[in-house]
Amino acid sequence: MDRERQQELREKDRQYVWHPFTQMKDYAAQDHVLIEKADGIMLYDADGKSYYDTISSWWCNVHGHGNPRIKEAIRRQLEQFDHIMFSGLTHQPGIELAEQLVQVTPDGLTKVFYSDNGSTAVEVAIKMSFQYWQQIGQQSKTNFVFMENSYHGDTIGAVSVGGVDLYHAMFKPLLFNAIRVPSPDVRQLGNERTPEREAALVADALDAVRTLFRERAHELAGIIVEPMIQAAGGMVIYPAAYLRGLRELCAQFNVHLIADEVATGFGRTGRMFACEHAGISPDILCLSKGLTAGMMPLAATLCREEIYAAFYDDYATQKTFFHGHSFTGNPVACAVALESLRLFRDEAVLEQSQAAANTLTEQMNTFTSLPHVADVRQLGMIAALDLYRDPETRTPFASDLRIGTRMYHAGLAEGLILRPLGDTIYYWLPLCTTPSQIEDIVERTQRVLRQVTAPLS
Amino acid sequence: MDRERQQELREKDRQYVWHPFTQMKDYAAQDHVLIEKADGIMLYDADGKSYYDTISSWWCNVHGHGNPRIKEAIRRQLEQFDHIMFSGLTHQPGIELAEQLVQVTPDGLTKVFYSDNGSTAVEVAIKMSFQYWQQIGQQSKTNFVFMENSYHGDTIGAVSVGGVDLYHAMFKPLLFNAIRVPSPDVRQLGNERTPEREAALVADALDAVRTLFRERAHELAGIIVEPMIQAAGGMVIYPAAYLRGLRELCAQFNVHLIADEVATGFGRTGRMFACEHAGISPDILCLSKGLTAGMMPLAATLCREEIYAAFYDDYATQKTFFHGHSFTGNPVACAVALESLRLFRDEAVLEQSQAAANTLTEQMNTFTSLPHVADVRQLGMIAALDLYRDPETRTPFASDLRIGTRMYHAGLAEGLILRPLGDTIYYWLPLCTTPSQIEDIVERTQRVLRQVTAPLS
Ligand SMILES: Cc1ncc(COP(=O)(O)O)c(C=O)c1O
Ligand SMILES: Cc1ncc(COP(=O)(O)O)c(C=O)c1O
């Protein structure tokens, strides 16, 4: 794209666009990167400069950009029909995707309710759980439980069960009351991490839930969790034992376990779904992002048959679940999701990515000896580390240094899209990333890290 | 599609899919219509039987299904790049669409914030308005006002400002408190409708708002309305004078006017936006559905510059709007929306649809003399009527007769997709509908109406 056209677009971007999660003044003196092409893990700006999309465009992209089979699936579906309503009408891609989702997700989930994004998948889960208890005669079960550090989206219902104050505190007067339980964040153990201490931490976190459930289960509809990784809350990877304990407590005390796999679903953690690391099935499961391989908006909320059954009755009994979105079950998005699942099978994507994940493990190890680095962690194609002024004592950098933002900017110069969460640097790689790309990404990141931290040491 | 395959899909539909807004037991003995093809206003089921999509697949479709220019726009965008994140990165379709939206929407709206569906467009509006007052030092302005009969979506924030109890009453414990004002529903005047009485009704409805604002404006962030037509609330068409009055009151008392044009936007009412009927500009505007010509999920919330400006500051002042969705500004959806706006221009869509709207007026007049029909009404390509046992006295049919549902079923047999709201029968036609198609649709509908009501007379 010629420079004049670029300039024109940049001015219009400033004039008309309000970007999400962005302090727009940060971009007064500096431009948003204008992307013109994407291919595999690479993005190309309008000057042709390339960048590794190390965070899969917000944890969405699965098979890389521009996958020819996905494009062909879109073309094929458009030859048949584009969008039609999903009430009263139905269609093959919507039906077949529902079947496949029931098959690939953890056991016991039997029905699929579509919506458009991760936030609405969570809203559906909350409303479904709430209405279920009303309809089986346990009207006092109206409250929800969430974990500290959790993030479930930005609509009011999703924010109400969110545990990151930066995003949520402002909106308190609009939120329903929900109950926070501790996160078994093993980073709390600092340098004292041993298997025993981890187990004790998990036991403590579960005790908090048990105490709450014992006292108030009769008021509780469900508990919502991001299985294995609290993503937006800082890439907190926690032990699978916590999930197993939670599953037992929910069964024992009759509280729905709602698993939000919007971010973790579809192979990113090394398993198709993060719940598999713990060998558990939730009562309700939320999916989005990777569902369409990161191509277009689509979400699904799956539930157990007994939940569905509590809504299934004569119309006059008024048990209908009155929830829906205009674009529910968009046929093009469903066709894309189906093709993505075919790709998983035909190209043994999960198995293939295992080699890459092993390389990622080796490479992440090389960070541990670098200055300012602590808590290097990984699960499948996700890896993270935290930067501290003094990592030994976990003394943070002054927040006005905005280390993460500096890493972001320096990363761009090195051809990396990094998007740190505070001072947590992370990768969330497409499953198509090759071992040698991972080596290159890590080498570049370490160069960036030295550049950013050297003047501060 | 052969019958065996159809049967297989129908069984899977029952086994795996939970359809939106649907009492699934209604479909125990009866099938969802399995759609296999769509073209213009027509849908075709797996047996090749055709149906008029008289409600534009939930008020979304604008130019008809399968428009070749839209398909080509998708293909073109996919050749460039598919989905990329819209924070830190930007792209031509997202920028150009924002520019165009600012240009085509009512004056004074300068910034575009994207999201994925109508509900999130409303959630963004609510949170934006709320945070605005917090940041300009008017912290007590935390409440929202809505109209009875209103519908703004199904996420908890949108439900909190919803006025249709059927959808919303159940979830009360999860909702924030909002304040209901009367709807200037001229149907209240029954057979006594005169311009004077309509004006008095509007004046009364505005008085209620004035009284509320006088007492509590210091606590009020905004009032949200569906301009001109309360759609899901029963296709309530109200006088433009109400909107003008509301605009004045909002300015006078410093309360945001939030216009939800998710349903009415993009030409459906005979103007590009329903606000134009009243010649007003809101402070915040919500768009979705027709934004992509009904092809795929995309939404936008536009606001005045002063609102944007209240968030624009040094990062450390903590004024960032922390809202975003993974698929924000999806490039494919933006490219489709741009092509739809080009179609509006190149094919003079609004002007063309005027002839069709005139035919619709003539044709709707033929309903007025039919038994059981009352309150025939129309705005642009939207028209509605209510069915009563006795239309003179507005005595309804017994609700367990489910007249609307009967109309729906009988409509299918006649090749019509109708989706009555209770006993309100309506059309929400694609702008490409021709006068002769309208005649055919109305003729079929009247046949259906006679079939359904004759045995009840
Ligand atoms: C006026 C209005 N606002 C908001 C919505 C919600 O949109 P969505 O279904 O895309 O969430 C609708 C949907 O019918 C609507 O009619
Ligand atoms: C775990 C989790 N849940 C829900 C969401 C919300 O999804 P969306 O941004 O599509 O609304 C996210 C998005 O980042 C997420 O990570």
What's the gist of this structure?
Two copies of one chain form a homodimer. With 457 residues, chain A is α/β, with parallel strands linked by helices.
Q: What is CATH's topology name of the largest domain in chain A?
A: Aspartate Aminotransferase, domain 2
Based on helices, strands and strand pairing, what is the structural class of chain A?
alpha/beta
Measure the end-to-end span of chain A. Answer: 41 Å
What would CATH call the class of the largest domain in chain A? Answer: Alpha Beta
Number of strands of chain A: 17
Main sheet characteristics of chain A: 7 strands, mixed
What do the pLDDT scores of chain A average to?
Answer: 97
Count up the domains of chain A. Answer: 2
Oligomer: homodimer
**CATH homologous superfamily label of the largest domain in chain A:** Type I PLP-dependent aspartate aminotransferase-like (Major domain)
Protein name (chains A, B): Adenosylmethionine-8-amino-7-oxononanoate aminotransferase
GO biological process, one term (chains A, B): biotin biosynthetic process
Catalytic activity (chains A, B): (8S)-8-amino-7-oxononanoate + S-adenosyl-L-methionine = S-adenosyl-4-methylsulfanyl-2-oxobutanoate + (7R,8S)-7,8-diammoniononanoate
Family (chains A, B): Belongs to the class-III pyridoxal-phosphate-dependent aminotransferase family. BioA subfamily.
Structure description:
Helices cover 39% and strands 17% of the residues of chain A. The first copy, chain A, is built from 15 helices and 17 strands. Chain A folds into two domains: 33-66 and 348-456, Aspartate Aminotransferase, domain 1 (Alpha-Beta Complex), CATH 3.90.1150; 68-346, Aspartate Aminotransferase, domain 2, CATH 3.40.640. The model of chain A has no long low-confidence stretch (mean pLDDT 97). In chain A, strand 14 (373-379) and strand 15 form a beta hairpin. The first copy, chain A, has a seven-stranded mixed sheet, with helices on both faces. A four-stranded mixed sheet of chain A has the order 1-2-3-16. In chain A, strands 14-15-17 form a three-stranded antiparallel sheet. Chain A is an alpha/beta fold and 457 residues long. In chain A, helix 3 (68-80) packs antiparallel against helix 12 (331-346), helix 13 runs parallel beside helix 15 (435-453) and helix 14 packs across helix 15. Chains A and B meet through helix 1, strand 1, helix 2, helix 3 and strand 4 of A and helix 1, strand 1, helix 2, helix 3 and strand 4 of B. The site of one pyridoxal-5'-phosphate (PLP) has 14 residues of chain B, from helix 5. Residues 117-119, 122, 151-153, 226, 231-232, 260, 262-263, 288 of chain B line the site of one pyridoxal-5'-phosphate. Chains A, B: It holds the Pfam family Aminotran_3. Chains A, B: Catalyzes the transfer of the alpha-amino group from S-adenosyl-L-methionine (SAM) to 7-keto-8-aminopelargonic acid (KAPA) to form 7,8-diaminopelargonic acid (DAPA). It is the only aminotransferase known to utilize SAM as an amino donor. Chains A, B: Its cofactor is pyridoxal 5'-phosphate. Chains A, B: It is found in: Cytoplasm. Chains A, B: Homodimer.
